Amino acid sequence: MAINKFRGLGVALITPFKEDGSIDYEALNRLVEYQIQGGIDFLCIMGTTAETPTLTLDEKRSLKDFLTERVAGRVPLLMGCGGNSTAFVINELHTFDWTGIDGVLSVCPYYNKPSQEGLYQHFTAIANESPVPVVLYNVPGRTSVNMTAETTLRLAHDHENIVAIKEASGNITQMDDIIKNKPQNFDVISGDDGITFPLITLGAVGVISVIGNALPAEFSRMVRLALRGEYSSSLVIHHKFTELFKLLFVDGNPAGVKAMLSEMGMIENVLRLPLVPTRLTTIEKISQIVRDLGY
Q: Coil, strand, or helix at residue 274?
């Protein structure tokens, strides 16, 4: 039986770029060490926050090799592998070198808007072919299709290799329905920083976080306190970041967190088109929060 290793604070790792647009591996190395020293529980690489659609296949392979070497088994690695062509995803599962990767995060097909049966068949095919455990990713704000609780639970009950879902639908009732009716070997992971605390109180096992890129120690403490049932202490930290949750996403992700990391002196504030840096007014507000936090 496949086991879910992705609990606690997982960070959706950004891809730092140099001014010329190339990948900044020196900055990435610093960032990885900063995450691990900050107490994260796992890394999610080459997801949406990594600007993966703008990376070439060679860059993806280079990043995977670089990250598995640097992490060296110190925390589990969850790697994005999804798309809106089932055959394409399966081909990637067959041809990519998954050495050092502990699981794949596979997003609901986007743009072509499949039915619930289409979603079920898509993820069934992926579960049957994946060499590592599968974490589903439901994010209708990006894909234009919501995977219902019924479909998620059907997949969870039918496939032992599907071990969790990253839920970013924003629908607490839907998430609670999954948590209430899921099999024991299946977990719900928050896909939104801002609802991580309430979702853990309902039974979620952690978060795949954007803010964790910049504040791994603080956010991992909030997550651990909540998982231990120390809700009052966890809630204090949650409320401390309420304004920041909004600022990091007001101009899109990862524009906000890249601006914050740049203000902290960790990376250059460079994104690849069609993404652009966050607005100056937002940067000024983020900069003030960085100063207030003592960075």
A: coil
Q: Which of 64, 166, 182, 285 is catalytic?
A: 166
Global model pTM greater than 0.90: yes
pLDDT given at position 195? 96
Domain presence at residue 59: yes
Alpha-carbon torsion, ordered 21, 23, 27, 33, to 10 deg: 150
Our answer to whether residue 166 is catalytic in this structure is yes
Beta strands in the chain (DSSP E): 8-12, 42-45, 77-80, 103-107, 134-138, 162-167, 187-190, 206-209
pLDDT at 292: 86
Catalytic residue (one of 60, 64, 120, 137): 137
**Is residue 128 assigned to a domain?**
yes
Angle CA(71)–CA(88)–CA(122) in degrees, nearest 5?
A: 95
CATH of the domain at 194: 3.20.20.70
Query: Average of pLDDT values for 65-86?
Result: 97
Task: Please report the pLDDT score of residue 295 as a whole number.
Answer: 79
Long-range contacts of 21-24 (CB under 8 A, 24+ apart): 21/270, 21/272, 23/59, 23/62, 23/63, 24/267, 24/268
Mean per-residue pLDDT, 193-212: 97
Determine whether 137 is an active site residue.
yes
